[in-house]
Amino acid sequence: MIRAVLLGWGIMALAMALLWLRQLRTRDATSVDVAWSLGLGFLSLFYLGFARGDSTRALVVSVIAAIWALRLGTYLLRDRVFGHTEEDGRYKYLRGYWGKRAPAGFFVFYQAQALFAVLFSMPIFAAMQGGPITWLEWSGVLVWVVAVTGETIADRQLARFRSDRNNRGTVCEHGLWKYSRHPNYFFEWLHWWAYVILGGGALLTWLGPVAMLIFLFRLTGIPYTEAQTLRSRGDAYRRYQRTTSIFVPWFRRSA
């Protein structure tokens, strides 16, 4: 496992370094999100050559992880790279905040994404090890289906809302977004439980949901997204915050 993870890290670090060189020219770091997602898919398939145990188990875990990563990566590619003519607001803010230190800051940031991709690939690798999948562990595939379906629906609802020019400056409160301010993040987090179940609760598989929850609430996800939306939506988003669950889809509160 150590050899596989180190090799994967080296490949991801090289890929991120090349993308960092690209953003020096384009002054647009948005592609790092796509690279992180597709990189996880690559690592999921790459680890097949190092898995020990039942081949069906390894193949099932590897394939569903790769499908999830490919779906997320292609969505981000359409929405954040091809769907916009300027850099994502989060990275534009960092570029202004760092100023002259931006090239060095983004290099560290890109390499951190390579490290995080390897970190999140470890629960997947752990779930690939062991004997044949038991009937109880197969329920992890059902959790995966629910999570990926929910995330896909949330992404499409938001994309459809943003595509309507009449919605500019307003807040998406349709479909799943009526019951959660971040339904896409919730189903993303739920997805990591699939590997806990498929891996029979192996200790390393718990790294997925635990680390993702920390990232979403403390590091990269919800705080930055909400701060950016408050800057662009103002009072409309503050009202939305008062009435709508931040994470788990739930009934709305009175304003």
- Please state the structural category: mainly alpha
Structurally, how many domains make up the residues?
2
Helicity range: over 70%
Distance between the termini: 51 Å
- The coarse overall form would be globular
Q: Which regions contain 5 or more consecutive residues with pLDDT less than 50? A: none
Tally the beta strands: 0
The rounded Rg comes to: 19 Å
Please give the largest β-sheet.
none
SSE string, helices as H and strands as E: HHHHHHHHHHH
Tally of contiguous helical segments: 11
Percentage of residues in DSSP E strands: under 5%
Protein architecture, described:
34% of the residues are buried. The chain starts with a helix and ends in a 12-residue tail after the last helix. The protein is globular. It has two domains: 1-130, no CATH class; 133-255, no CATH class. It has helices at 2-26, 31-46, 55-82, 89-98, 102-127, 139-163, 183-191, 193-198, 207-219, 222-233, 235-243. Helices cover 70% and strands 0% of the residues. The chain is built from eleven helices and no strands. The chain is mostly helical and 255 residues long.
Task: Give the arrangement of secondary structure elements.
Layout: H1 2-26, H2 31-46, H3 55-82, H4 89-98, H5 102-127, H6 139-163, H7 183-191, H8 193-198, H9 207-219, H10 222-233, H11 235-243
Helix pairs in contact: 1-2, 1-5, 2-3, 2-5, 3-6, 5-9, 6-7, 7-9
